[in-house]
Amino acid sequence: ALCTSAVFALAASAQTDSAIQNPNSNSAVAYVYVSSGNQNIKAFGTARDGKLTPVPGSPFRVGFVAGMAVNAIYLFLTDEVYIYSFSIAPDGSIKQVASINAQQFNNGGCGGPEPLFLDRTGTTLYDVDFNENCTGSDDALQFFSIDASTGELNYLGVTAATWSYWKPLSFIGNNEYAYASECSEYSDIYGFQRNADGTLSVLNINPSVPTAPKGYSYCPNQMVADSANHIAMALTPENGYKSSQSAPPPQLATYTADSSGNITTKSTRFNMPKTAIPVITDIAMSPSGKLLAVAGMNGLQVFHFNGSKPLTHYTGLLTKDQVDQVYWDNDNHLYAISQPSGKLFVYTVTPSSVSQAPGSPHKITTPQNIVVLSK
Fold first, then answer.
1. pLDDT confidence of residue 132
2. pTM higher than the cut 0.85
């Protein structure tokens, strides 16, 4: 098991694609994989300055992609029925090596996997499985072990179905506890304990939420953990089931997990920073745990993350294009995809400086999902 964990430890003016030059794979600090609406994956190597160059063979024809995840040696894709394993060559190119019908494990064989995610060691693959029990409303989390030598997935089990499970879990640094939040008709914050075999057990937690401005309640929108035991959460003020155009902007809270998996917060509406983004689509923690990227309908901004202390403002909007997903690598690069504008942005972001990488933004036809493998 220790050997397997070591193998899988995670390293985890627009231009046309044809204008990007062929890469020198030896200079790449990360590989970037973007699924697009024309059913292929564009793969790039990232230079130290953030410049992207396509890997040999890119784009790769893969069919419809509903979700992706990546560990040190495999890229995983799902089409909402199967989960496919692709090996990653030293130059970043990919080749399918295995597949498994994840839908077959559902009661009645309906629904299927969409978002994919991994634990911090990259040894267990999880999916958010929609309509797990075929009721048309409930979801569940499936778990699979990964054969390090072949990429084959072995089904381990599934959580009980519930309305709440829509988002991938985020694991804190000990890789034992993981959390997510959902802002919907049934707003919820939920957590799981990861067992030694990679299976998940529900944590019986009921974390408090700060008191919202008068006339509103906070809806937990997004949640992501750092490499210690802290969690950032976006809280969106709502009046009833729908947020008003005149509602206050979302704010960012910080929570801390204890040794039993309980999470608590000292955040209040007075010490939580407000975002410049009224509708948040994604948040991502930098590997250092010092920066938090916040993406949404009207752009992208970055905050300083200070552990259990309140977050603080850092940047304004880095772009005013809608940003749907964000991802960090281990070399201070922040990647962001915009589905409506068909762009892939790359920034170099440290706690003291921000710059857009050479050639960014890059044109991508209807980008859907992004994952990044740090080398």
1. 76
2. yes
